[in-house]
Amino acid sequence: MIIRRNLLHGLGAGAATVSLSSHSVLAAADVVLQSGDEFEEYLGACVIASEESEVLDQNINPVDYWTCRLSNVHEKALPKGCRKVVILDDDILPDGIAQGFTKLYRSVHEDYDFNPLDHPHHFAPHLDDVTDLRERIQSILTAKSANASRARVALFNAESGCFYCSFKWLDILPDLRAHYERVVVVWVNWESEKKPDFIEPDFDEEAYNADRRKRRDEFANHCETVVEISDADIEKGKSTRHWITKLTRDVADVLLRKSPAEISALPTCGVISFRDWMALVA
Hints:
The protein has helices at 4-18, 23-35, 97-112, 133-145, 169-179, 205-222, 240-256, 260-264, 274-281, and strands at 43-50, 63-68, 82-92, 122-127, 153-157, 182-189, 225-230, 270-273. It has 282 residues and is α/β, with parallel strands linked by helices.
């Protein structure tokens, strides 16, 4: 059994050690502790880390690129002005929350080239079953609203995901849709892709592909555009991640060079192939 006072102690130490600056996390933990609920041995934790910029090239309109820990894109290769919003998760012990969040902040700094604790960047810590993830996301969006170089467009990697936290893109898309003028999804559809080994045996190939198509269409219902990358867009001889990164970079480059008026005029395309979308917005 988990000793509940360890959780509160860990949160308090975290606030002092890494400057969580979030009394709502402590308050929510207090409520949960008093409820008598028990916790699992580990807690799913994440940090929503938002990169910001104070000065940009006058010809660049910033784009917010949303992604998670598990990603098929090399984010360090994204163009300047494509600002990363990373949901980075981990499993942490209730009595090691300070160390767990410290590790997450360091990972953002090392893996994504910005320190979420430094100005002008933003961050929000989250613990599954203690804080509400949508409220954490909304706190980031509120901070972004106050930024002078607010992005009009969100570009997000629908194939990215969390490993430890209970997170689904579809849960937060309404919040992103309310904040941005345009939301553009990058979706990868390999025609030659086989069902992963970890999928249940009774979930056959046809059912697996049908489920992916349903998920893609759900994204299209919540966003202006789903840009679909397929086998035809990939040049043989290079790694898959290399090409997905290159094509995602191409999508971002086009958006970065659009004027505010051109961004407002972007059509709502639903699901559209990468080549057709690039031709449409060139």
